[in-house]
Amino acid sequence: EQWYQRRVRGAQKEEKLAAKRIRLDKATVESMILKAFKKNQYISQKNLISITGQPEAYLKEFLSEMCVYNTKAPHKNTWELKPEYRHYESSASKEMETD
After folding, report:
1. 60 alpha-carbon distance from chain centroid
2. Which long-range contacts (CB under 8 A, 24 or more apart) does 46-54 make?
3. DSSP assignment, residue 77?
């Protein structure tokens, strides 16, 4: 009976390790966030965590820098890109076209 419990505990530990989120480099996470906001203007933190696969504390560093947290209806408890990031990629592509 004890060997079975140890085996189950070992399997549970492996599952926890597999579920841990690994931090990616800053540029990759920023591009993932911008890509997510191309599809939706307002995204909950829970959805951003699942989209990026990053740890909550690490992701929140990016969100506080790049986004605004909405505390009032109709988009309560969601994140929205700051104005300077909203047109970032479109303005960069326009600059390339004019060169």
Report:
1. 8
2. 48/79, 49/21, 52/24, 53/21, 53/22, 53/24, 54/21, 54/23, 54/24, 54/29
3. T
Distance CA 59, CA 47 (A): 11
Q: What's the pLDDT score for residue 22?
A: 86
What is this structure's pTM? 0.67
Q: Which burial class, exposed, middle or buried, applies to 42 when counting CB atoms under 10 A from its CB (0-12, 13-18, 19+)?
A: middle
Do the beta carbons of residue 38 and residue 51 sit within 8 Å? no
What's the rounded Cα separation, in Å, for the pair 60 and 45? 8
